[in-house]
Amino acid sequence: MTQNSFGRDWMLFKASAQQNAKPLRNRASLHSGARAVPKSSFPKGVHRVRRKVVPGVRYHFYAWRGGPKFWEGTDPIPKDPEFYHAFPQCGTPVSPAEFLTAHLVDDYLSSASLPKAVPSRADIRTWLELFREEFGADPVAMFEERASRGEANNWRKKWLHSPKQHDMAGTHATRALNWAVEEGKLNKHHCHKLKKLYQSNRTEIIWSSGDIAQFNMHAPKWVKRILTAGCETGLRATDLVQVRMDQFEDTPHCKRLRFRTSRRGQIAYIPATSALEKLIAETP
């Protein structure tokens, strides 16, 4: 076979392969599975975010990048008329320079992401109002710059006299910024894992058996019951005062307390110790 004939045969083979080859799927089709997901059918400016969740995949739709979320679902291209009705209700895009930290605080405090417990909501509101006082007039986009970490740490120095308050200021500011990233209002921020000063050591703050015995030697009977109930259940004082006798249930092995805690709003099942069962039997 001559060199010319080899080259001619190779060109014929290459042309045949190109004719029979299957077209490659584009990145959009690989991203969503079997079919491409073009954005051309969306209203202009819609920003779609794909997130993996336990059941599968959900799509979050924002009026614009950094704008409010107006739709959420499993369909990458919603066909529900409500989708197209909800979009224009979001208003016009706000430039990064116009979206201020004060607006972020307002949006977060009015969102469904706040914890259910009333005390926790109050703490968050208190600290974010202080955060607003310091940075309210600044664009939220400033937190995308590395220098913003130093700005946040300088703000926290107001509470150097109280390490716990110093740490709480950073915790709640970071909470709001994390929410802003999740909601597409920020691309990123640099206030993750701010250094903490408070170190809790409660290993020595306990009631020994000798302390309890000495206390019970002098305390009235009704006060003894309070101490026993607290020691045997481990409940906070705010929860302990809500315990009722009808919240104790019989099980095949022992009694147990079925109680919804006030801080997290979750049901706790606390087995009754022998001391607690004796308390239940002796309490009028």
Number of helices: 11
Largest sheet: 3 strands, antiparallel
Q: N-to-C terminal Cα separation, in Å?
A: 110 Å
Report the sheet-strand fraction. 5-15%
Q: Structural class of the secondary elements?
A: alpha+beta
Radius of gyration: 31 Å
Multimeric state: single chain
Number of strands: 6
N-to-C order of helices and strands = HHEEEHHHHHHHHEEEH
CA-based shape: elongated
Question: How do the strands line up in the largest sheet?
Answer: 1-2-3
Unreliable stretches? 21-37
The amount of helix comes to 40-55%
If you average the pLDDT, what whole number results?
Answer: 82
Any overview of this molecule?
The protein has eleven helices and six strands. It is of the alpha+beta class and 284 residues long. It starts with a helix and ends with a helix. Residues 21-37 have low confidence and may be disordered.
Provide key terms for this protein.
single chain; 284 residues; alpha+beta; three-stranded antiparallel beta sheet; 11 helices; 6 strands; 11% strand
How would you sum up this structure in a few lines?
This protein has 284 residues and is of the alpha+beta class.
Task: Tell me the layout of helices and strands.
Elements: H1 3-20, H2 27-32, E1 47-52, E2 57-62, E3 69-73, H3 81-86, H4 101-109, H5 118-135, H6 147-156, H7 163-182, H8 209-218, H9 221-233, H10 237-240, E4 248-250, E5 255-260, E6 267-271, H11 274-282
Antiparallel strand pairs: 1-2, 2-3, 4-5, 5-6
Helix pairs in contact: 4-5, 5-7
